[in-house]
Amino acid sequence: MKVQRLSDLGGVSVEGVDLAIPKTPEESRALKGLLDEHGLVVFRNQNLTKRQLVEAGAPFGGAMLNKVTVAPDPEAVGISVVSTRGVDGDVMPDDPDKLVGQADWHTDQGYLVQPNRGKILYAVQIPEEGGQTGFIDGQTTYATLPPDLREQIEGLHVIQSWRHSRREDDGGQQYRRNGAVELARDRFEDVVYPIVYPHPVTGANVLNYPPLWAAGILEMSGSAAEALHARIMAHIVQPKFQYWHKYSPGDAVMWDNWRFLHSAGGTPGRYARTLWSMAIVAGPILGLTTEQAAALKQNAA
Ligand SMILES: [Fe+2]
After folding, report:
1. What's the 300 CA to ligand 1 centre distance in angstroms?
2. What is the CATH number of domain 2-300?
3. How many angstroms does the Cα of residue 113 sit away from the middle of ligand 1?
4. Which helix (H) or strand (E) holds 29?
5. What are the structural domain ranges in the chain?
6. pLDDT tens digit string along 1-40?
């Protein structure tokens, strides 16, 4: 196994591992260690069937059914097909120049209190242009917070809202994938997360403020809340924190969803792009229950 740094922003690229082959307990521990330590791991030169991709999740906790954004594949439960041509490959975009499949920075299932541990995206069809996936490390954005901002957000909570992500002005439009299953705007109740939490495995502090979901700060309102919201957002999305992965044939990109934000850059309509997506099972509850959130709000009022 050859492990190399992916970029100055962290993450690693791995050669010499075939995810299609079941792993011994020792090999599984080594692979899980890569996820825990680096949070972003690109396995090069894979050649996987859907079934094998599901099984590749075993060392990390196993595959989870992704219930929401794209249709699960009936032949390999746990795999979702993410394609600019729709699930059946037959949706042609009207405009060859318009970007298809863009999504703003987010955590997966951040509208639930118990998000999946991670995800593997396996490149099946790579477009000539675009189609990159962006990553931002929440441990880096925490570590680089200006001291006064770090102090200001201490103990505060962010409202993570499915409804907010699908608002009509911009976010909702961005998130809608061509051919994706359309889901009601009110399908999920808002949830609440700490803005900073210790990573459940490593204990390192993670700055958690996912731009796609972040509807506001639980304990604040009015212009003070808006100003703090804007300042946190501006810190997180700085280009110097963004790593954009350009897929090579055979790439299987895995990341730690408790630590990294990701974003889909979009693909010009004239090119087809298909990935198979596999979510790794959820772990501890990172958000708050409705009762806990209500009690906090009461205290803050
Ligand atoms: Fe996502």
Report:
1. 32
2. 3.60.130.10
3. 16
4. helix 25-38
5. 2-300
6. 999 999 999 999 999 999 999 999 999 999 999 999 999 9
